[in-house]
Amino acid sequence: MTSPSLLPGFEYQRVDVAGVTVNCAVGGSGPPLLLLHGYPENHLMWRQVAPGLTRDHTVVLSDLRGYGDSGKPAPDAAGDVYSKRSMARDQAGLMRQLGFGSFQLAGHDRGARVAHRLALDHPGAVTRLAVLDIVPTRHVFRNVTRAMATAYYHWFFLPLPNGTPEHMIGADPAYWIRSLTGPLLGEGASIEPAVMDDYIRCFSDPRTIAGSCADYRSAASTDLVHDDETFAAGQKVGCPVLVLWGAQSFVGRGYEPLSVWRQYATDVRGQPLPTGHFLPEEAPALVIAALRDFLG
């Protein structure tokens, strides 16, 4: 389990949501705010941001299914178990069990993709949505370039069949985590050793490797079906959306994030931050300020 000393002031809970255990930490008081992490991390990626939001919010930090210390159901061939729809259902159910029928929501990386689907599938639950350093999955796959495939090579490696990525990552999880995160960090940025050790601890579990590979397989298959259906139906995120991205990240270099998101949501605003991909760990004060201004 994650050491509570890495997130002082938060109370840990393990909540059963329709048979999947969701690991979370809760702190603060006020309107509820759910924060979702990205790959290859866990809820600790918010460790420098969450305490600054507890003055005004009840902050819930959650591990996605397959990640951190949450449940890791066996993947299925159809891709439903680790679809963003299933992962979003976990998080909506968690918040209901914590007593929050509606809440504000922020996600980074994979967590932002889960958050996007959660806002679409449970529109009455999400009052405000912040997405950090992503454009929608559908847009990414519809606009593959050499630069994108180079920067996001893991998008194409992790979905490979026959257990190939699971075997290769399992041979040296620490090397994989460090080799992936290092180039995505902005200039001069780093992640402190105790936190990196916790990310590696989680990926030392073969079930985490399997679940996270299944997450990426679903993104390249089942999730695209759901996203195409939503887009074809004209459904957009109806609540206000804040888009933050790193000026040094591929999202900042390769896309026009606000114009892209305006195809998928009705009320969009946002800005770049002077970071790489891991905004909450590289510029926590700027992320806190942007979120507090947006969330109220």
Radius of gyration, CA atoms, in whole angstroms: 17 Å
CATH architecture: 3-Layer(aba) Sandwich
Overall pLDDT level: 97
Query: What summary fits the major beta sheet?
Result: 8 strands, mixed
Shape summary = globular
* Number of structurally distinct domains: 1
Question: Looking across the biggest beta sheet, what order are the strands in?
Answer: 1-2-4-3-5-6-7-8
Q: Strand-residue fraction?
A: 15-25%
Element-level helix/strand string: EEEHEHEHEHHHHHHHHEHHEHH
> What's the CATH H-level homologous superfamily?
Alpha/Beta hydrolase fold, catalytic domain
In the CATH hierarchy, the third-tier topology is known as Rossmann fold
Q: What's the total count of β strands?
A: 8
Explain this structure:
The model has no long low-confidence stretch (mean pLDDT 97). This protein has 296 residues and is α/β, with parallel strands linked by helices. An 8-stranded mixed sheet has the order 1-2-4-3-5-6-7-8, sandwiched between helices. The chain has one domain (9-295): Alpha/Beta hydrolase fold, catalytic domain (Rossmann fold, 3-Layer(aba) Sandwich), CATH 3.40.50.1820. It is globular. It contains 15 helices and 8 strands.
